[in-house]
Structure formats: C-alpha cells, structure tokens
C-alpha cells in the first residue's frame, strides 16, 4: 500500500479537532453527536431500501412457506381461492418420499460448490503466482483475465453449450465422443468446467492483490536462509496471502451455493443431474406452487447463512476489511489525554 | 492503489541487477509460457465464440481457427428487427442503467458515513450490508414473484429494477466504502477548519477526489446488473420485456432440432462487446475496485 496509509490514524475524525483554547471536551462531544446523527441519517436510505427489497421478501418467504396450494377445501367441499395454512408441511415433505428431488438438488448444489470452488482456488492461486512474476504484458494479462468475469453467465453457459455440443470443439479435441449436455455426470462436469473458466480468473485477481501486499524482502530473507521455492510458497506466500484467499473463497462458496443460470442455460431446467436448490425453488414458484417454492428458498437461505457463519467463525475471514483493532470508546477517551495516538498503531 | 501497475520499486533494483543477463533470459521462458497459458485459458473460449459467430450457418460445425469465408449472416439475423433482439438490448440498458444510478446515489451517502463518521453499530450494519451481497437471489424472487403478480407488475421495468437493488446496492456500498477510506481524512478536515461545513467539504473536496472511485463502482455495478439472469427470467413472460441474456437463452431455430448456434454466438458477441470494451479501457480501475473491498 502507499505510504499515506501506513501512517493512518486509528480514528481520523479525532485528530482533526481544532484544539482551540476554549473547551476542547465540549467541542469534541458536540462533534461526536453530530457525527452520530449525520451517520444515522446517511445510512438510513440504504437500510430502508434493503429492508424493503431483502428483509421484507425474506420474511414473506417464511410466511408463504407455511401455506399450501389453493384447491378443494376438505371441510366445505368448495373450491377456494385462498391458500390453506399447512404449518410445516412444506418442510416435512423433504423428509418423505417426495423429498427425493430436494435431496438430489441439495447434493448437486453441495457437489458443485465443493468441486468448482476447490478447482478455482488451485487454478486461481496458480494464475496469481504467474501474474505476480510477469513483468511484461501486464495490461494484456489483466484485460484477458477480466473478460471471463465480464461476460454474462447466461452467455458463458451458451458458449460452453456450443463448445460441448455433440459435434462441437470439445469432442473434436478430446478423445472419444461424449454427449456432454445430456443427463448424467458429464453434464455436471460441463457445468463445473464452464464455471471454473468464468470465475477462476476472478479468484486469481483477488489473490494477486493479496500477493502484492507481501514485501519482496520477506521472500529474499527466506531465500538467503536456504528455503526452496516450494518451502517459500507453503511457509511464506500461502500464510500471508491467506486473508485475501479466504475472502475470495467465501464469496465463491456463497456464490456457488446459489448457482442458477449456469446449469439452467447450459443443460436446462428440470434436469436431475444438474438441478440445484435455486433451480428447484424457482421451478416450484414458476409453476405457482409458491408454498413449496418458498420453503426450498428458505432452506437454501438458512444453508447459506450456516455455511457463511461456519466459514467466518472457523477460518476467520475478514470481509469488512476493517480488521485493524478499532479502539473502543473508552480506550479512545483515554488516548485523548496524551493526544498522540499515532504511536499505538503499529 | 496502483500496485498492479508497479512492477518493481527502485529499491529492489540492486538485488536483481547482479543476475547476469543471459541467465535471466534463460529463466524467463518458462514464465512466458505460463503467462501465455493464462491468457489462452481466458481468451480461447471467447475467441471461439467470435469465430463461430462469423461462420455461415452451412459451415457452423467447421473447426478451422479462422472462418472461411467470413460471413456476417448471423449478425444480420440477430439484429433483424423481427428477432426483437434490439429491444432486449434496450431493456437491458434501461434496467442495468437505472439500477446503477439508483444504487450509486444511495450508496455514495452510506459509504461516506461508513468510511468517515462514527455511529452506533457501524460495523454491524456494514457487515449486514455486505452479507446481503451474497444473499441467494431466489429467496427474494419467489415471494416477490407472487407479490408483483398480484400488483400487475409482471413485465414492467420496476419489477426488474427493484429486486436488482438487492445485490447492486450492497455491492456499491462495499466497493465505495473501500474507496472513501483511501482518501486522506486530513483533506476534508482542512476544508472544515477553513470554514467549510461538512456537506460543503463533502461536495467540494471529497466528491471530486472520489469521482474515479465512484465511476469504477458504477462500471462494476453496471456489469453485475447487466449480467443478472434469474430476476429477469422470473419477472417477464413477454418477449418484448426480456433483457438480452434471457432473450438469447430463448433463441430457437426454425425447427426444434436445429439450435441456432451461430445466431446465439453472434448475439453473445453483441452483448459482450460493450463489456469487453469497458474492461479493456478501464481494466486497471476495475481491478482496483474489485480488490479494494476484499484486500483493503
């Protein structure tokens, strides 16, 4: 990072207080309350919009998942337009025979996520190491690495459907003739290949940014001490690049868990070998079975939350990018007395 | 954050200088091969899309790396008014453009507060906003589909724009916060000491300095909104309201068994070219923006 950030103050607003001759304490308090009011005011629109477009629909999905299909009312014998309250029936179906489709989608989602993210991590790290060494042609490499990221997923899926066509280039280059886009494990392979192509460069980009924060001296010191290239990678590069890699992987995992358009366009809807939870929920809802669609969507949501929570807790991914231990209010008040807070920041 | 552009700082020069030139050259070729590998990996499928789009439909299954003869037949077919593809492009532009503008306006205020001001539960709110980025879109699409159906919002622009805010806004807040944090707070404080109010300092000092960051965030948000698929697929059922990615995925040939791969590839190129131009022109900024949040 630039030199200006290395001397970053622990709390910028504090250092700016005009230390006038009057009552600095009162000015500071006034400024703090102003900052609080303004801050609350400025984040209000975002919080409001997200409450309307995210929080409300999510709660509504939970409510909807408790209702069944409108149909013949068993009590009156009349056809009713309103949806009957069915409690947890929509969730209970996943435990019965009808749950086969759900568990298949769940298994597909998990398999897709683990396989594609693992491949993306390995390929991404390799790409980052290569780009980090490259001195010439950086602009070309950077532009080409951004292209898979920029192409819409639906177009990527169409492109790979063409590549994996029975008479396409994949079968021409590879031995044998595989019907990639038909039901079977090869369909999942095709989806994973396409997804890895689209996102591994993105992982590489994030890892590269992490690599560039490592001072070259660290490597040279290890080299002088006799560490080989492999050893330097495992003991120095990887641990130091871990924070960037973890954030990239967290995002990739959560993104892969909600995958929809790649299998939907590349293979097609309602194909059991690639159907994911998102596709299942979408299919139910578009066939006006809102209750079960919402139930699947809620289950996917809970699963994503669980995975994210576990990932952050177990591996300590820092997403907010604010990992520097921010001084607590009390510590700051204490630090105000000597006024030279810069020293406390390493 | 220009680190990607900075190959080596001068202080490293002495360590690399003593290496004899010839040895250095010998060491270079595996690296060059690897770099070429990365570029080929990223570009080959895209290249194949362009090549296939330029073939005549008669020789669409050819495997030559250069189409012979080059034909614009597929482009003519795609852009023909009867195909309605231009309308889809316009829809995409309206939806992605509006989403980007709305998200940027709201996010700029919030990101400034996140980067500069101190208020209760700040970290919690920021974490919650960022977490929203990774939300499974299907869990809001299902209830909104029902709601919008009862409101008669299906096949309207607002039905595409409002749900898109769910991912565009958090993304913009996240990237912009990282950009605002990079602007030295001292500049703003100096302006305030010189008598500016906070809002004047924001408008006259911070916003001009943040303009490149805001612009970069706009590009990234636009590309993300342009690529959106599931919302556009769910909230439309009339061809004239579909966005470009959805429209292309529904291209069908004259018969059921004849998938028009040529037209699909041509349409894919048309949809992708604006993005590729953006990426090539603003590559450094985009990389900065994408990495600013993740690696501060």
How many separate helices of chain A?
15
Order of helices and strands of chain A: HHHHHHHHHHHHHHH
Strand content of chain B: under 5%
What count of domains describes the coordinates of chain B?
A: 2
Output the structural class of chain B: mainly alpha
Q: Please state the overall shape of chain B, judged from the principal axes of the Cα atoms.
A: globular
* First and last CA, distance of chain A: 15 Å
Characterize the overall form of chain A: flat
Summarize the main sheet of chain A: none
* Tally of DSSP helical segments of chain B: 13
3D architecture notes:
The complex is a heterodimer of chains A (346) and B (296). Chain A is mainly α and 346 residues long. Chain A contains 15 helices and no strands. Chain A has a single domain (71-321), classed as MetI-like (MetI-like fold, Orthogonal Bundle), CATH 1.10.3720. Chain A is flat and about 85 Å long. Chain B folds into 2 domains: 26-71, no CATH class; 73-291, MetI-like (MetI-like fold, Orthogonal Bundle), CATH 1.10.3720.10. Chain B has 13 helices and no strands. Chain B has helices spanning 13-16, 21-53, 73-79, 85-116, 122-133, 138-151, 157-182, 185-193, 198-226, 230-235, 244-249, 261-281, 283-294. In chain B, helix 4 runs parallel beside helix 7, helix 4 packs antiparallel against helix 9 (198-226) and helix 7 crosses helix 9. Chain B is globular and about 70 Å long. The chains are: A mainly alpha (346), B mainly alpha (296). The interface between A and B is large, with 116 and 109 residues.
List keywords for this structure.
heterodimer, A: 346 residues, mainly alpha, MetI-like fold, disordered N terminus, B: 296 residues, 13 helices, 71% helix
Short description:
The complex is a heterodimer of chains A (346) and B (296). Chain A is mainly alpha-helical. Chain A has helices at residues 3-6, 12-15, 24-64, 89-92, 100-133, 138-150, 153-163, 169-173, 185-211, 216-224, 229-257, 261-266, 277-286, 290-315, 329-336.
